[in-house]
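Title: [Solved] Ferredoxin 3D structure

Original question kept below for reference.
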Amino acid sequence: MRIEYDRDTCIGMYQCVDEWDAFEKNMDDGKADLEDSEEVDDQLFVREVPEDAEFDAEFAARVCPVDAIKLFDDDGEQVV
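Solution (posted by the thread starter after getting help):
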């Protein structure tokens, strides 16, 4: 499973931080940071989701009020 995080879209509500510990508050920027991610495009961060964290990652994506987080299964189909 792969997660994509559009940091430019993030408005800093930090709901993702409450759902998955891979997201951290960045109070200086007023946005969340996604640990162990790679910036693949301007402010678009991607990383693989460990199997034991898939449930938490899904909730992090679902609670984002601006849909800045997308989750894809191993076939590339968008889950959230």
